[in-house]
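Continuing the series of single-chain predictions for the mutant panel. This is the parent chain; the variants come on the following pages.
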Amino acid sequence: MATTMADRLIRRHPLQRLESPSRGASALLHACGLASFAYSFAYLVYNPNQINDSYGWHMQYLTIIGLSLSTATFVVGLSADLTASARLFAVKNALSVASAPMECLITALYWSLRAIDPSLVFPDWAPPLDPIADFTFHAVPSIALVADLLFFSPPYTIAFLPSLVLSLVIAFGYWMWIEECYRWNKFYPYPLFEKLDTMQRIGLFVGSAVTMTVATGVLGWMHGVVNGGEEVKKAKSGNVKGE
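Parent structure:
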């Protein structure tokens, strides 16, 4: 009896809607997510453009960096489901602290910029993006990761300041990376960067980091709405695994 109860607690945090890790719905979500991510990566290979032969490959795009982190998150999540590993489950939750807010940021930035002016995100030389691929690149990852957080994960316990620092590191790390790629390629992956001066780029990346931090807070609030949060311990700096 005690062993059965302990096993259930391992698979389901008190503030977690559905059982995870598990070989049921949790594994299904992670497997379906990985299938979509694999389709996206295959699309890059089978529909090449000049980015394929440039320095940095498609990893110049924040979308693909986010997709890679999402893939790592779901690979670890599915591995936890199949092995019932509490340690892998904790690693998945730690990765989610970065990947879920990042994908929310990517989705918000992409669709808003595209609505304003598609030329801000699509270079003149880029072929039209297939609608299904567009959806798998710029919507499915955020939907899948938010679903994983809300229904198959314990609540975030990362505090505001560590969340902001993490977001700033990601934002300015990406800026340094695309500048390095520009040094070799002589073009930016997103035409938007060509239109901005240095101060405007600083504003863009600071704004993106703040947006990602806000997304982390909103996701935590949504988790509380879906799962209840009365007994959630006060967030502590450095505790990002939902333990």
